[in-house]
Specification:
Its cofactor is Zn(2+). It catalyses: L-methionyl-[protein] + [thioredoxin]-disulfide + H2O = L-methionyl-(R)-S-oxide-[protein] + [thioredoxin]-dithiol. One of its GO terms (molecular function) is peptide-methionine (R)-S-oxide reductase activity. It comes from Malaciobacter pacificus. With 119 residues, the chain is mostly beta strands. It has a single domain, classed as Peptide methionine sulfoxide reductase (Metal Binding Protein, Guanine Nucleotide Exchange Factor, Chain A, Beta Complex). The protein has one helix and nine strands. The strands form two sheets. A six-stranded antiparallel sheet has the order 3-4-8-7-6-5, with no helix packed on it. Strands 2-1-9 form a three-stranded antiparallel sheet, with no helix packed on it.
Length: 119
């Protein structure tokens, strides 16, 4: 499987499971209609109509494209990591039960892990 070439900062987050600083990513305050895709493999991950403002400084989504995102126990033992189901690239973490949306789910994603296709 051929992946997109990643720069050093993208590798730090997507491959080495890093985190970008809050309120710095290109998609945290992005409001176009379309679909958010994996920066590493272009798989469709999050429809734009599932994005909401969580106030955290990272793009937040209350749902995913079916079977596009895998949940894994995080190395810290407290959180649940989310990765692209297609390539395994690190996306961020998922939090449940916060009540921010009717689905009470927040996929907290690093902008650097995403690309976007406008409708």
């Amino acid at each position: 499987m051929a992946f997109n070439e990643l720069n050093e900062e993208e590798k730090r987050v997507i491959i080495n499971k890093g985190t970008e600083r809050a309120f710095t990513g290109k998609f945290w305050d992005h409001h176009e209609s379309g679909i958010y895709t994996c920066r590493q493999c272009n798989a469709e991950l999050f429809p734009s109509d599932t994005k909401f403002d969580s106030g955290t400084g990272w793009p937040s989504f209350d749902d995913t494209v079916s079977n596009a995102v895998k949940e894994l126990p995080d190395a810290d033992g407290r959180r649940v990591e989310i990765v692209c189901a297609n390539c395994g690239g690190h996306l961020g973490h998922v939090f449940k039960g916060e009540g921010m949306t009717s689905k009470s789910t927040r996929h907290c994603v690093n902008s650097i892990s995403l690309d976007f296709k406008a409708k």
